[in-house]
Design a protein that fits this description.
Elements (H helix, E strand, L loop, with lengths): L1 E10 L2 E7 L4 E5 L6 H13 L18 E10 L2 E10 L5 E4 L2 E2 L12 E4 L5 H4 L2 H15 L1 H27 L4 H41 L5 E6 L7 H7 L1 H7 L10 E6 L2 E2 H4 L2 H23 L4 E4 L2 H4 L2 H12 L6 E5 L2 H8 L6 E7 L2 E5 L1
Parallel strand pairs: 3-13, 3-14, 8-12, 12-13
Antiparallel strand pairs: 1-2, 1-4, 4-5, 5-6, 6-7, 9-10, 10-11, 14-15
GO molecular function: ATP binding; single-stranded DNA binding
InterPro entries: DNA-binding_RecF (IPR001238), DNA-binding_RecF_CS (IPR018078), P-loop_NTPase (IPR027417), RecF/RecN/SMC_N (IPR003395), RecF_2 (IPR042174)
Family: Belongs to the RecF family.
Length: about 375
C-alpha cells in the first residue's frame, strides 16, 4: 500500500498544491514554518480522518477561507483508490472513498494504517494518562473495529452521564432511575475495553522490549504495564461506590477513561528516572512496535511519517533508524528536515527509490 499523490486546497498554509510521491522514500525539505509538517498532517488526515496536531477541524482551514479539501490517490493491492476529505466551516466533515461518502468517520479507521513519529511524542512519556490512552487506542482502533465501536459508545455514554451529573448538581435534585441506564452501559463497556487493552499490552510488550534492546544496545530492563481499576471482577462495586464523589465533582470518576499505561525502566517510572537518551530510545521503541503490530495485524506495512526526527536524535539512534530503512523493514516513508544536505547525505547510501520536495511558504516543488 502507498500514497501515489496528494492535492491540497486551502489546507493550513497551502492555497492549492499538488505532489506526486515515490512509493518508497519521500523527503520534505525547507525552513521551519514553511509547511513541511502541515504536509505530513494532510497525509495523516487522509489515513486517520483527523489532524495529528489539532483536533479542531475549523482551525486547519487556510486563514480567511471557509473550507479545505485534501485528496489523495492510494495504491492498495494494485488497485487505485481516490480518497477525499472535505471540511466546510459550520458543516459536517465528509470523507469520500472511491466516490462513496462514509456515513461514519469511524468506518474509515484502519483502511490505510499510518504511524507518525513527531517531536510532540515526548508527551507520551512526560504528559498525562490521556496521551498514553490515545496512543494505545489509536492502535487498537485500527486493528479491531469492535473495539473502536465500543470506545465510541463508551465516550457517548460518558458524556451523557456527566451532563446528567451536572444537571443534578445545578437543579438540586437526584434521580437514581434516570442515571441507571448510563451506569449499566459504562460498567459493561469498561469491562470489555479494559480486557481488550490488557490483551493488547500482553502482545505488544515483547515486541517493544526487543526494539528497545536493538535501538539502545542497552542492558536496562524496560516494560509497559497496564493500570486499570476496571477488571471484570469487582469493578461494578467500585463504580457504584463512587457515586457520592461523582455527584460532588459532577463527573464520572471510575471507568476506562481513567486508565493509564506504566512506562518503566529497571522497575522505576521512566518519566522520573530515565535519562534523556533512555527516554528517546523508549519512545522510538514504542513507535517501531506500533508499526510492527499494525503490520502483523493488518497484513500491510503502514505509511510511516517522520517529522523532524534527525534534529531530535543523536547520531547513534539515527544510524539505527537508517539501518532499518536500508533493510526495507518499512513501506512508504515520509520525512521532514530543515537541513537538506543532511537528509540527502543520510539517505544517499540507501538503495531505495527516493523523492525530494522543496517546501517554501506553502508551495511544493519536486527536486532532483
Amino acid at each position: 500500500m502507498h500514497l501515489k499523490n496528494i492535492k491540497l486546497n486551502q489546507f493550513k498554509n497551502y492555497k492549492q498544491e499538488r505532489a506526486v510521491f515515490s512509493k518508497e522514500i519521500n523527503c520534505f525539505l525547507g525552513m521551519n514554518g514553511s509547511g513541511k509538517t502541515n504536509l505530513l498532517d494532510a497525509i495523516h488526515y487522509l489515513c486517520f480522518t483527523r489532524s495529528a496536531f489539532n483536533s479542531i477541524d475549523s482551525q486547519n482551514i487556510l486563514h480567511n477561507e471557509s473550507f479545505f479539501t485534501i485528496a489523495g490517490e492510494f495504491d492498495r493491492e494494485g488497485k487505485d483508490l481516490e480518497l477525499r476529505c472535505i471540511f466546510e466551516a459550520g458543516k459536517k466533515k465528509q470523507l469520500v472513498l472511491a466516490g462513496k461518502a462514509y456515513e461514519k468517520m469511524s468506518d474509515h479507521i484502519g483502511q490505510f494504517p499510518v504511524v507518525m513519529i513527531a517531536p510532540d511524542d515526548i508527551q507520551l512519556i512526560k504528559g498525562g494518562s490521556e496521551d498514553r490512552r490515545k496512543f494505545v487506542d489509536s492502535m487498537l482502533s485500527q486493528l479491531d473495529r469492535n473495539y473502536l465501536q465500543s470506545l465510541v459508545r463508551y465516550q457517548h455514554f460518558l458524556k451523557q452521564r456527566n451532563a446528567l451529573l451536572k444537571q443534578f448538581a445545578e437543579g438540586g435534585r437526584f434521580d437514581k432511575e434516570l442515571l441507571e441506564p448510563y451506569n449499566i452501559e459504562l460498567i459493561s463497556l469498561s469491562k470489555v475495553i479494559s480486557q481488550k487493552r490488557l490483551e493488547f499490552i500482553e502482545n505488544f510488550s515483547p515486541k517493544f522490549e526487543h526494539h528497545y534492546r536493538v535501538i539502545s544496545d542497552s542492558k536496562e530492563a524496560v516494560s509497559v504495564g497496564y493500570e486499570s481499576h476496571c477488571e471484570p471482577e469487582g469493578f461494578e462495586k467500585v463504580f457504584r461506590d463512587s457515586l457520592h464523589r461523582d455527584l460532588a465533582l459532577k463527573r464520572t470518576n471510575k471507568g476506562i477513561h481513567r486508565d493509564d499505561f506504566a512506562f518503566e525502566i529497571d522497575g522505576f517510572p521512566l518519566k522520573k528516572y530515565g535519562s534523556q537518551g533512555q527516554q528517546k530510545s523508549y519512545l522510538i521503541a514504542l513507535k517501531l512496535s506500533q508499526f510492527q503490530v499494525l503490520e502483523e495485524g493488518m497484513g500491510v506495512k503502514p505509511i510511516l511519517l517522520l517529522d523532524d526526527i534527525f534534529d531530535k536524535l543523536d547520531d547513534a539512534r539515527i544510524e539505527k533508524m537508517v539501518s532499518l530503512v536500508a533493510d526495507h523493514q518499512f513501506g512508504q516513508l515520509f520525512i521532514t528536515d530543515a537541513r537538506p544536505e543532511r537528509s540527502k547525505q543520510i539517505l544517499a547510501s540507501i538503495d531505495s527509490e527516493k523523492a525530494f520536495f522543496r517546501i517554501d511558504n506553502g508551495t511544493i516543488r519536486a527536486e532532483d
